[in-house]
Amino acid sequence: MTDQDKQRVWVTLRTAGTDPDGFAEEEQILRFPGEVTRVGDAWLLSYTERIEETADTEVRLRLRPGKVMMMRQGDYSVSLIFEVGKHYEGAYHTPYGDLDIAVETLSLSDRYSERQGEVSIRYDETISGQLVGVRTMHISYARRGAPC
Fold first, then answer.
1. Which residue positions in the chain have pLDDT lower than 50?
2. Residue 79: which H helix or E strand, with range?
3. Which of 96, 105, 115, 135 is nearest to 36 (CA)?
4. Dist CA 14 CA 86 (whole Å)
């Protein structure tokens, strides 16, 4: 696969978490069409989250072994970096105003290719100085026509 080839893929997003008191939140599983492209030593994964009764959110991920950069653009926009042992601070833009957000990656496992890939991230999330919980995010992609 060359650096400019794009593969059409299905993206599956699984999110869950626990609040600061240890109560588990319901797992969400969403699936969207997307594209993956190899650029140098990274994979660029992009998809649009289309969820009923909400505006579309464009999601772009730069996937490198051990490091994920995520940019979400829509009514609720944020850029985050996940890398084990690293603390990252940014702004969470909402229709109601901006909030400070911080993440600290506790674990990250990944594997990528042009046909399929996956990344699992577990991280602490803090908004406006308050710990909101430990989150898990699992993103997988598979070439369309293959199970994801």
1. 1-3
2. strand 78-82
3. 115
4. 22
148 token code pair: 């994801």
Distance of CA 11 to the CA centre of its chain: 11
Report which of 123, 130, 132 is spatially closest to residue 15, judged by C-alpha positions. Answer: 123
Q: What's the pTM value of the predicted model, to 2 decimals?
A: 0.89
What is the DSSP secondary structure assignment for residue 19, as one 8-state letter? -
106-141 per-position pLDDT tens digit = 999 999 988 899 999 999 999 999 999 999 999 999
Among left, alpha and beta (phi > 0; psi -120 to 50; other), residue 132 is: alpha
Beta carbons within 10 angstroms of residue 42's beta carbon: 17
Structural domains of the chain, ranges and CATH numbers in brackets: 6-143 (2.40.128.20)
